[in-house]
Amino acid sequence: MKRILKKMLPAAAKRAIVLGIDGFSLFLARACATNGVLAGLYYAFFSRRFDREHLAVLRGRLAYAKSLREIGETSPLLRRNIHRLEKGLIMKPRRPLFAEGFIAETVHCYARAAANLDYSPAELKWATDVLDAYFDVVEPSPVVEQAQQVYALCSQTRGTERPILVPPTFRPYPRSDSPPCNISHDALQALFIRRRSVRWYQPIPVPGDLIQKCIDSAALAPSACNRQPFRFIVANGVERASRVAQCAGGTVGFAEQLPAVVVVVGDLSAYPKEQDRHLIYIDGSLASMQFMLAAETLGLSTCPINWPDVDAAEVRLQKLIHLPEYERVVMLIAVGYPDEEGGIPYSQKKEYRLLGQDMVTDDH
Q1: Domain 195-336, CATH homologous superfamily name and number
Q2: Do 102 and 84 touch, CB atoms closer than 8 A?
Q3: Sheet harboring 260-267: ordered strands across?
Q4: What is the distance between the terminal CA atoms of the chain, rounded to a whole angstrom?
Q5: CA 93 to CA 347: how far, in whole Å?
Q6: Which end of the chain is more exposed for a tag (fewer CB within 10 A), N or C?
Q7: Which band of pLDDT confidence, cut at 50, 70 and 90, is reported for residue 130?
């Protein structure tokens, strides 16, 4: 019906209808923006823009609860808690007794992970090394001693069929042990200036091993409590990449010649509470920037493709790449060998200067 009306109505009538709808929506927004209850009623009865987010968050909570019972190759709870132990171990001064509130939960999760031969060997070694360090230094208490007994038992029965990882240790280490950095600020700035959003590419396939290198670099990005709530889905080849890119707005005219497109996906099953729902966008974006900078060092260019929250586009891409409902798209990234004659927008950036109002002071 909407399509028929769009064809039948003159342009002036369509503009008037759009302006009227926008005006009424703005009137309702003003009326409901005075407090949280009215805002909730507005999005319950007058706008369904957040329906998919609500559903994704709830499905994510259920998937998180399932991951506690059925541990697979990795565990967001174990990653989070082991990282919390690391932060306790490096505290200055370190408290003699810490982590009593979650150490039992941690070792029980560790026991289930250690019993699963499919669990990530590197992640398990990290957890083992950190737990060893924790029990080496923590002051005894009934809670700690009980947890240590569980840990000792599962350490003795840990599967021997998994790959053996040799040193170095995965324990926390002093900053002085970090690898040296031979990159000057000028060299880094040159990389930042060189990395621009490239939309025109040579008709050359992108080797999968280069994309894997970019993903490996992206995986080193920081994430809240080391939960790493993201993954990369690769559409390699012009036909596949074009189908994915056409799901996004703003790709008309260049989507058909993209050699590869990477879909950065946020995973809400990493969280038990709604309060963390936005971390997938923060952590996914940090990883995406490292992906794009890594690509530049390998002779590839990239273009981040915006992904606004549009239901039709979300449904289309979700079906195309088979996303569960608790995973949400953060952005798309086009990847390929640049057409050296292709144009690049200059895109002047804002200038940022530290002014008095931009700095924290002692004034109250």
Answers
A1: NADH Oxidase (3.40.109.10)
A2: yes
A3: 230-236, 260-267, 327-336, 301-305
A4: 59
A5: 47
A6: C
A7: very high
From CA 209, how far away is CA 192, in angstroms rounded? 23
Cα-based angle 255, 313, 327 (whole degrees, multiple of 5) = 110
275, 250 in Cβ contact below 8 A?
Answer: no
Rounded distance, CA 162 to CA 194, Å? 43
pLDDT one-digit tens code per residue, 145-165: 999 999 999 876 665 566 667
Concatenating the DSSP letter of every residue in 116-132 gives -TTS-HHHHHHHHHHHH
Helix (H, G, I), strand (E, B) or coil at 95: coil
Listed residue (300, 284, 121) closest to 208, CA to CA: 300
Give 211's contacts (C-beta < 8 A, 6+ positions apart): 234, 236, 260, 262, 335
In a 3-state reduction of DSSP, which class is residue 109? helix
Q: Which of 142, 143, 80 is nearest to 110 (CA)?
A: 80
Tokens 């490292």 locate to 290
Please count the other Cβ atoms lying within 10 Å of the Cβ belonging to residue 177.
7
User: CA 344, 348, 349: angle at the middle one, nearest 5?
Assistant: 125
Question: Which residue bears the tokens 């690898």?
Answer: 179
Convert the pLDDT of each residue in 279-288 to its tens digit: 999 999 999 9
Percent of the chain topping pLDDT 90: 76
Residue pLDDT, tens place only, 36-81: 999 888 888 888 889 999 999 999 999 999 999 999 999 999 999 9
Q: List all residues 6 or more positions away from 190 whose beta carbon is below 8 Å from its beta carbon.
A: none
Residues 6+ away with beta carbon under 8 Å from 325: 55, 56, 59, 318
248: DSSP letter = S
Least confident piece of the model among 7-21, 169-183, 306-320: 7-21
